[in-house]
Hints:
- Chain A has 13 helices and 4 strands.
- Chain A is mainly α.
- Chain A has one domain: ABC transporter involved in vitamin B12 uptake, BtuC, CATH 1.10.3470.
- Chain A starts with a helix and ends with a helix.
- Chain B has a single domain, classed as Rossmann fold.
- Chain B is 33% helix and 28% strand.
- A 6-stranded mixed sheet of chain B has the order 6-9-10-3-11-12, sandwiched between helices. A 4-stranded antiparallel sheet of chain B has the order 2-1-4-5, covered by helices on one side. In chain B, strands 7-8 form a two-stranded antiparallel sheet.
- The two termini of chain B are 27 Å apart.
- Bound molecules: adenosine-5'-diphosphate and magnesium ion.
Amino acid sequence: MTTQNVSANGRTAIGQQLVRWGRRPFHDIGGGLLIALVIEIIVFWSLSPNFLTFNNITDGIGRGMVVIGIMAVGQTIVIIAGGFDLSVGAVSAAAAITAASLSNSGAPFLVAVLGAMGVGLGVGIVNGLITGYGRINPLITTLGMLSIVRGLAQLLTGGREKVIDSRTFLDLGINDTFGIPNIVWILFACFAFFGFLIPRTKFGRYVYAIGSNDRAARLAGVRINRWRLVIYGASGMLAGLAGVVTTVRLGTAAPNFNTGSELAVITAVILGGTSLQGGKGRLLGTFFGLLFIQILRNGLVLLSVRSFWQLIAIGTSLIAAVLYDEWRRTGLTRG
Amino acid sequence: MILEINDITKSFGAVDVLKGVSMSVDSAQCYGLVGDNGAGKSTLLKVLSGVHHPDSGEIRLEDRVVDFNAEIGARLAGIEMIFQDLALCDDLDATANIFMGREQRKSTVGRFGFLDHEGMKKQTEEVLASLGTDLPADQRVRTLSGGQRQLVAVARALEFQPKLLLMDEPTAALSVDKVGVLLELIERLKARGVAIILVSHRFTDLIQVCDKVGVLVHGKIVDEFEVAGHSVDNLTTRIVRRMSGLDLDGEE
Ligand SMILES: Nc1ncnc2c1ncn2[C@@H]1O[C@H](COP(=O)(O)OP(=O)(O)O)[C@@H](O)[C@H]1O
Ligand SMILES: [Mg+2]
């Protein structure tokens, strides 16, 4: 009798564990996005013969999503931490110009990349200083920074493009490894790197703690303002890397690069289930949100829909995602 | 004396919240602090735990003047506080909250290392068990009941073996049997030599576990007395009269 009970309990426990384990990857993402993604794929597949081709998947979708994807990794971290970073697009342009200038003046590839990421890191740290120590709303801070950085980029280049001479840059944009474009590998590496660190380090834990209740974290002795420097610094650095990738893809650097890209970036993050309130979210969710946005952009291009429809579609997705999040949250509180 | 404070004042803008508070508590002692809402009890405890810096006055910990400028300073000195609003990160689980700011890591290299999830979870379960609860260590604190959240806050204060424990209304959300567990716990902590300052509106509980009681009215301690040798009724009357600003009518 007793043994029977034990084994029965044991079995249910294992069963529950399996169910939890199976759900785990999708915990917080919400089934809604995955269903929307499947529907989206079916729709474009049936409307466009070019949609599910190898070339479109690696190029139109894969290469096309790298720049906003890299920025979305940083944005996810910032939003989970209760912040916001509107400056990423402008930072990527400034970083692209930095990379191009360094490279054209003879610096090795790696130095040019590090220089670009350094510019991003610098801007990110300033964002962190102003929002943390200065206690200024992050939307306002990073909106101001967007304008400042964009303006500086125009000023320093005289508004002109810089054409890249270096072969390494151009090759990186063209070459594949195991059939997957190298810049897509860079995107995967960013997701993998932070996806690995966040659950395993103090950094990751404090990102959630600061977003959940920064006062409580501070009272527990977490130096929240220092961590904000790290958080915004990471976002800036990733935006810098995104700028390098833009240069690699286009072979030039221009001060108006990625204008308005923050819209797609933030939409990918919010679609992925990261809460605007902070404290909640996952990079895996952002990855699916990114896929959704990129497939939408790519599909509309394939259907030769005029480009302003892209803006309308992305804006609609953003608002729908926020509504869905709000509805899920208040539904939960009521229950 | 483990803690002695002299003439502590604290204002927020034009509001004088603490107007010269002096008191002391010894190890293995519990000091009960009572007073109306807004009397300044939470502010006093926050000054002691380094959240607020006093405008003037002196804090002596184990006969040395201390001046905490960050909360962690007080925690390193062995002062733990259970905040009235608990100060928990609701999106994190009990383990993450209990070890917040003091995460344990395995095999660190310099300043880097990975969190020791299993170790911290095990210790969390142990400290929660010592509080007579088996609430899940790995569930978001938001999903717990008010009483369970309060126990998480208590567990956090206990996990790091404080010398001085500041408790700001720790029983407010607890059920009757959990209040009993907490009072027993206070006795056990005292037996281990821990000094405690307990803020509570439950006078009978306070009188049961405290050795000394202070009555705070408008930022001043207007009465302070030893508990031993008096009846609960007597002391309750005394507290109530003092809080309403009355004299003791020569009773004592
Ligand atoms: N951070 C603060 N800023 C301004 N006023 C405060 C602050 N904290 C407390 N007060 C004021 O100080 C007074 C005492 O508050 P508090 O210490 O919380 O009282 P108690 O815990 O005894 O109810 C109240 O009038 C409160 O409004
Ligand atoms: Mg209070």
